[in-house]
């Protein structure tokens, strides 16, 4: 198993690994991407609550983890930020494990909306929210997470993220409290869905869970691990722990592909062609099934709420290495060859 604990003094293996990773062509490529897009300073930091506005515009990190557990990272990959909407994809997976496909689909559809993530719109025929990636669908999905009380449900969510990333996660309490104090729109959606029987009686507990899941702190490395675990059929490629039952990986990944990038999902799939999920904290998690997970972090967002530098990085990676899932031709560069320079993990 790979060593991910970092190099202590005298730990020759780790030192060798980190030197190898530093000089690997793929890492150099990522570091060039970082320099190429660092000057891009358009876009805006989310400021619908004051805590998010504290992010620094220069923060920028890129991490890639292969399905055999090689880790490449450049820039601010240890900087913590809140996961926000990226959590929705993984909570959908947990809801599927808790109830199975049919029941979950009776409460939330899997159809893209072409509308903003916070739009208040339900499918007129069935009263279901459109998909688990818009807020209404995410709240209906959070409602399905089992547990005897709010604490137990949150613990199950945090345990799940730990299986994916290999480390403990905390909630950013000020972000959670602000989301809770100001989330009137989300609250309105939840009560509308209660009216239609799409969520149960524990509305306030479920809203708390939703605000908490959005406030989980992660870094770019975690986002790459989340994606790499999905790319690896649900098994964390570093710890070898299973994070989600294999049968549900395709559910999560296909909804990421069709609905993961808000109302830019169509264009993203066309240009980048990787199942992905973004969050207003500035993160993007993207995967190449069977090969790679990518995590990017830069808090400057475009008008649709996607990280601008993150979009550019994924677009370049897709083009340069031919990673678009529907691309039958090979890219200019062959990923296998470029990562071959590293036989270990980065100095994490
Ligand atoms: N907490 C945010 C909300 O519910 C999540 C938004 C996001 O990342 N798009 O509005």
TrEMBL record:
GO biological process: glutamate biosynthetic process; L-glutamine catabolic process
Presence of the UniProt keyword Lyase in the record: no
Keyword field: Acetylation, Hydrolase
Enzyme Commission designation: 3.5.1.2
Keyword Hydrolase in record: yes
Pfam families the UniProt entry points to: Glutaminase
Annotated substrate binding sites: 85, 135, 179, 186, 210, 262, 280
Superkingdom: Bacteria
Gene Ontology molecular function terms on file: glutaminase activity
InterPro entries tied to this protein: Beta-lactam/transpept-like, Glutaminase
Reactions the enzyme catalyzes: L-glutamine + H2O = L-glutamate + NH4(+)
Family: Belongs to the glutaminase family.
Matches recorded under HAMAP family: Glutaminase
NCBIfam families xref list: Gln_ase (TIGR03814)
Subunit structure of this chain's protein: Homotetramer.
Designated name of the protein: Glutaminase
GN (gene name): glsA
